Amino acid sequence: MAPPSFAAAALLALTLAAPGTALSAVSRVAVESSSNAPLFESETLQLTDESLSHLSKNQSAYFDFAKNDSSLHTRTFGNGCKVFPGDWLWPSEWVWWLFDELLGGALIKTVPLAASCYKSWPEYDANECETLTSEWTDSNIHAADPASVMWPLFEGRSCLPTTDSSASCTVGGYSSYAVNVSSVGQIQLAVNFARNAGLRLVVKNTGHDFNGKSTGAGALGIWTHNLKDIDYIPNYKSSSYNGPAVKMGAGVQAHEIYEKAHELGFTAIGGEGKTVGVAGGYVLGGGHSPMSSIYGLAADQVLALEVVLANGRFVTVTEENNPDLFWAIRGGGGGTYGVVTSVTSRVQPKVGVTVSTFSFSTGTDVSVDAFWAGVRSYIERFPQNADAGTYAYFWILATGADSFTFLMNPFFAVNHTLAQYNTLVKPWYNDLEDLGISITPNSTYYDNFYDAWMAGFPLETVASSVMMTGSRLFPRSNWETPSSFNATFDALKETISAGYSLLAFNMKAELVDGYPSNAANPAFRETLLHAITSTSWDANATNTEIKSKMEDFTNNVLGKWRAVSPDAGAYMSESDILEPNFQQAFYGSNYARLYKLKQRYDPTGLFYAPTGVGSEDWVVKSLDGLPDQNGRLCRA
Ligand SMILES: *[C@@H]1O[C@H](CO)[C@@H](O)[C@H](O)[C@H]1NC(C)=O
Ligand SMILES: *[C@@H]1O[C@H](CO)[C@@H](O)[C@H](O)[C@H]1NC(C)=O
Ligand SMILES: *[C@@H]1O[C@H](CO)[C@@H](O)[C@H](O)[C@H]1NC(C)=O
Ligand SMILES: *[C@@H]1O[C@H](CO)[C@@H](O)[C@H](O)[C@H]1NC(C)=O
Ligand SMILES: *[C@@H]1O[C@H](CO)[C@@H](O)[C@H](O)[C@H]1NC(C)=O
Ligand SMILES: *[C@@H]1O[C@H](CO)[C@@H](O)[C@H](O)[C@H]1NC(C)=O
Ligand SMILES: *[C@@H]1O[C@H](CO)[C@@H](O)[C@H](O)[C@H]1NC(C)=O
């Protein structure tokens, strides 16, 4: 940011010293982590009381750590809202400039990613707009932007790529500013600043979250994407574990950790998606993995986290140190208890995987009844397949009136040779043959996870504005009696027949014996099927039409799934933003304890994320009536 000209004199008031950056408030400290994993260089660069003592009283009022006293209520405008651009309490240009100086120049004022498409922005550039438009659905460009997210619908669609350069583009629901984080001290400054100034705060890593947790109008964003360190720890020790581990910076993405694990000869537990941030909202929300049927959730692997709390302090969270946070942060959701700067997780031995893809459809040889009988024969086998340690991603689509397609996309048979895989699926394949359904599976064995994952899962397509999703974790008990199975099968069939595609995972995610328990959704522990469906609308649909589509989807389409699994839940990170009673659905019996811990560690409600723990105490006054983040955040 360019300094305002009048600021030069004020510089003299600052006598902050840190290597390299004359004015930065961040300095290297000689402290060790209380976990067995040494701090990263970026984690030794911290904000200290000493460095703050060089600020004038007026300045330090913005950047001080939380006092451990009664000054705990949120600073809000008279209307009970977080301070918003244009409010008289909104920090002046000079304060933003000072903040940037203290950060060492890491503050970025938000320019929407698609600004190049609009004449009203200085960034207007028709060629660049064309390139951006062609790349819009590529997750990489959103991960690499300080403010962009992969679900523009929940931002507020305030600046989409367009060929109409005179249309309107606003910062909308994107954060107003973002800190491009390279040290813990910068996160501490941002947390203290947002808390002291009453600003909305959002944490953005890649921006994958389905519900808009990494975006918010008028917010200060903390962008953790560039925290890319990876350390291998051959002998990590804690009360319940003694073995190899890996420490990952918050910005490490699936393809990066898997590649590293491959190089070192172990298996890391992360997501299926190529660009998902493994140590970000993914793991904090539980995180299902192609390895889940054997090792449980990504959150279950976590041995230690380094975290900046709402009071600005940097703490190590392990089973022994801050045990309540250790329980809550692992599964209790991102952007809720603090900003995680790194995660240290168990690693698992190298394992071989058979990856198989195939499809079948209704047609001249396959009647609709035969098709569904073939699908039924598959779904009946979910308990055996998950218990065998496999994970399968499949789609079932209606392709017209009374025409359907099944796609295995892929069957990911962990710890199965080709022969073992073929034995596992033989009874199903035999049923298909008896039904006159012919398939030509493309099955390949890989001797390691990385190669199998690279072959099995393509880069995800993101950033649609004309659809939303919903999901359900169907429990094993639904497979236990013929009538509960029939009800489950009929509900899925009815959804698909009504034109809603099924994108689903046959898997389980039990907590492995001896692993410490955590706050992950208890519904995960019971599940055999994480089923996702979606609804969509015309690009020209009005907001009222979209709203009514969404409500119909939530109540009537997903309502059928809830009706056959009333005590189950849904995976918070791939879910319906309008999920009724989200507390039960996303957190189950853990919610009361999570809420209590939220009050204890974040009494001012500094961290807000839609459908996060404690989010019921807040409301976003969205400008278009849709459940997006384009509006003031106010006390409910
Ligand atoms: C400090 O802030 C007060 C009130 O906000 C203002 O009146 C005063 O001029 C400020 N002092 C300095 C040195 O900026
Ligand atoms: C606040 O004070 C209490 C009681 O003195 C103490 O136990 C606690 O650790 C303090 N918290 C912080 C964040 O300093
Ligand atoms: C963010 O900071 C990193 C250094 O940590 C730098 O390489 C990168 O260019 C910065 N990104 C932006 C968008 O400023
Ligand atoms: C892999 O499968 C073999 C049997 O083929 C079994 O003995 C072993 O325990 C399995 N490994 C894991 C990690 O499940
Ligand atoms: C079979 O699948 C592999 C990925 O596992 C792919 O590379 C290959 O092209 C596929 N072969 C055919 C014939 O589709
Ligand atoms: C379940 O559905 C199958 C296939 O339609 C049917 O044969 C069976 O009688 C049903 N069982 C129950 C208990 O409803
Ligand atoms: C909206 O777009 C659809 C095609 O996607 C078109 O059939 C319809 O006429 C359009 N409606 C309006 C009001 O422009």
UniProtKB/TrEMBL annotation:
Keywords associated with the record: FAD, Flavoprotein, Oxidoreductase, Signal
InterPro entries xref list: BBE, FAD-bd_PCMH, FAD-bd_PCMH-like_sf, FAD-bd_PCMH_sub2, FAD-linked_Oxidoreductase, Oxid_FAD_bind_N
Signal sequence bounds: 1-22
FAD-binding PCMH-type domain ranges (all copies): 171-350
Keyword flag Oxidoreductase: yes
Domain of life: Eukaryota
GO molecular function: FAD binding; oxidoreductase activity
Cofactor(s) it depends on: FAD
PROSITE patterns: FAD_PCMH
Pfam families referenced in this protein's UniProt entry, alphabetically: BBE, FAD_binding_4
Entry similarity comment: Belongs to the oxygen-dependent FAD-linked oxidoreductase family.
Descriptive protein name: FAD-binding PCMH-type domain-containing protein
Organism: Penicillium cosmopolitanum
